[in-house]
Amino acid sequence: MKGLDARTPVLFVGLGSNLLVRDGGFHGAVVLTHRAFGDRPLVLASGTSGLSPMDSGVVCAAGAGVPAPHVARFVAKHGGGGAEWLAGIPGTVGGALAMNAGCYGGETWNHVTEVETIDRAGNLHRRGPREYETGYRHVRLRTNAEEWFVSAHLAFPAGKTDAAMARIRELLARRVATQPLNQPNAGSVFRNPEGDHAARLIEACGLKGFAIGGAQVSPKHANFIVNAGGATAADIESLVDHVQATVEARTGIGLVREVRIVGEPRHG
After folding, report:
1. Which fold has domain 33-178?
2. Distance (Å, rounded) from C-alpha 158 to C-alpha 197?
3. Which of 17, 151, 188, 218 is catalytic?
4. What is the pLDDT of residues 81-102, one digit of tens each?
5. Which terminus of the chain is more exposed, N or C, with fewer CB under 10 A?
6. Of residues 137, 147, 167, 218, which has the active-site annotation?
């Protein structure tokens, strides 16, 4: 990060979940975190590093590039509970921190006790949860400083390994049964509006299976857009816009994108 021009855009990428890069590419510095900050999370003793985790349980330190499912299994194998839902997050710890990822009743920032970040000058910072404004798929550093996540300490209550591993297998089976994992996709496209589900609204508007070019609203799960063959990023973005506009016109509900779109369109 040191020596990087102040005007250069920076993009941190883990596994690419919830990310669509336009066909013209991203003109800036891209930092690939997967395996970059250490692949193995560590179990910390209760109270280590000034933390105040639950009286009995597991505190896991994980680099931003560690896949979330690895954390779920690691916590389970070390006697922790309540991390099983992380097996359903198809991204890394860094991405989960940046968007407060969640599923199956779990949410990332409910477990954060400390994070480490890096700024544009290459300086490292340790920050606590109170320094962030967090909500549903929303995370913002209260000072608005430009920083990116490097690692996190996540606390979980005590659990039983066999029960936790069984729950992980159950959630993964549910994910396979309900999501189009056999086709290229960027994960859930829209946030769920309060009291409803984006997939239900999209399906109710008759958009399940609707396609633009090679991009298609998944016939399996309407809140996923899949590459059915030869889709460009422009096809996908056009379909996202069409779904958003159609749902708002027919229901009055403005769906908010969960997928992040970056880069430049292809010209010519």
Report:
1. 3.30.465
2. 32
3. 188
4. 999 999 999 999 999 999 999 9
5. C
6. 137
